[in-house]
Amino acid sequence: MMKDLGEKTVLVTGAASGIGAALARSFLTAGCKVALADIDEARLRRVTSEFEHARLAARAVRLDVASEASWALALRDVEASFGPIDILCNNAGIGSERQPFGALSAEAWRRVFDINVHGVFNGISAVLPGMLLRGSDAHIVNTASILGHFARPGVGEYVAAKYAVLGLSETLRMELAGTPVGVSVLCPGLVATRIGLPPGEDENPAPVPPTQPQPGARPLGIDASGIGDAVVTAVREGRFYIFTHPEYAALIDRRFGEIGQALASSAPLGPAEDIAYLGQGFSRY
Ligand SMILES: NC(=O)c1ccc[n+]([C@@H]2O[C@H](COP(=O)([O-])OP(=O)(O)OC[C@H]3O[C@@H](n4cnc5c(N)ncnc54)[C@H](O)[C@@H]3O)[C@@H](O)[C@H]2O)c1
């Protein structure tokens, strides 16, 4: 648990927009020094300069989360000005090509995994060894999605990538139990951000006159601003899962209901001698 966040150094990836910018704002408001990292340098400069004008300890750093070399350069820059990273938010991500399997391009599949999954792994490998070596309180927040808990058709590469982020976060939490490094996984539902919009389009689209919602159309989603504060609270309190709406319980229950039924009706194929072996991580927290 990190009760006192004052003066901590935070690195947020994907901080030039949406959820990342909200995370940066909330950690700055909590008194942290925040490195805003993003591949979109123009937008990054704009967002960071707003914080600098408010005399907050913000610093922009160019980072392509998919590149290990870019992580090395970014860390050198941040550590030289703000010191070692205490809180890492692996948040950068891209949306789906929105094609069903069969029409989905291999390039879209690879791109989503390069950024949404390998980007998170690269961040952990770059920052975690230093955190463990220093031995002071630290925290890693990975942005998954509610689509890491159940699937939706038409966005398969995104769903698969977010299940991966959830799985790696759950493993990381078990491995780091008993160390001073906490772990959280952020699982938002729809948030009104630039994700999926063409480059250059703004995250604050002009207000549209109210119309009848089209059945099956993508709703706009909630404002990102509340998510930053929810993450700051979760880091302070050492909470692992961070959700944005209790209503998703109905969909998660539906999935686990089917899994529960399938388990209950499965014929044992041999003695389950591996229960304690496979389940050993649960006793760690
Ligand atoms: N918006 C939603 O509805 C929603 C829901 C659940 C999860 N998420 C997740 O939240 C995270 C943030 O998304 P957002 O909705 O704020 O989107 P966004 O597009 O507004 O912001 C994402 C930021 O990531 C940056 N980025 C993209 N590729 C990068 C790379 N290779 N290296 C560094 N930065 C890169 C973009 O430039 C952008 O500034 C993503 O991981 C996304 O999957 C979003």
Which characteristics define this entry?
285 residues, Rossmann fold, seven-stranded parallel beta sheet, 43% helix, binds nicotinamide-adenine-dinucleotide
Per CATH, which architecture?
Answer: 3-Layer(aba) Sandwich
Write down the CATH class.
Alpha Beta
Q: Mean of residue pLDDT?
A: 94
- Count of folded domains: 1
Give the biggest beta sheet: 7 strands, parallel
Based on CA atoms alone, the radius of gyration comes out at 20 Å
- What is the share of helical residues? 40-55%
In what range is the share of β-strand residues?
Answer: 5-15%
Number of helices: 8
Q: List bound small molecules.
A: nicotinamide-adenine-dinucleotide
Major β-sheet strand ordering: 3-2-1-4-5-6-7
Helix-strand sequence? EHEHEHEHEHEHEHH
Q: For the record, what is the CATH homologous superfamily label?
A: NAD(P)-binding Rossmann-like Domain
Task: Write down the overall geometry.
Answer: globular
Query: Which structural class fits the helix and strand makeup?
Result: alpha/beta
User: How many distinct beta strands?
Assistant: 7
Quick summary:
The protein contains 8 helices and 7 strands. With 285 residues, it is an alpha/beta fold. The protein is globular.
Q: Would you mind describing this structure in some detail?
A:
This protein has helices at 18-29, 41-53, 68-82, 106-134, 156-176, 225-237, 249-264, 275-278, and strands spanning 9-13, 33-38, 58-62, 87-90, 138-143, 181-187, 241-243. By secondary structure, it is of the alpha/beta class. The chain has a single domain, classed as NAD(P)-binding Rossmann-like Domain (Rossmann fold, 3-Layer(aba) Sandwich). Helix 5 (156-176) links the parallel strand 5 and strand 6 (181-187). Helix 4 (106-134) packs parallel to helix 5. The longest helix is centred in the middle third of the chain and has 29 residues, at 106-134. The protein starts with 8 loop residues before the first strand and ends in a 7-residue tail after the last helix. It binds nicotinamide-adenine-dinucleotide. Nicotinamide-adenine-dinucleotide is lined by residues 13-14, 16-20, 38-40, 63-66, 91-94, 115-116, 143, 145, 188, 190-191, 193-195, 203, 221.
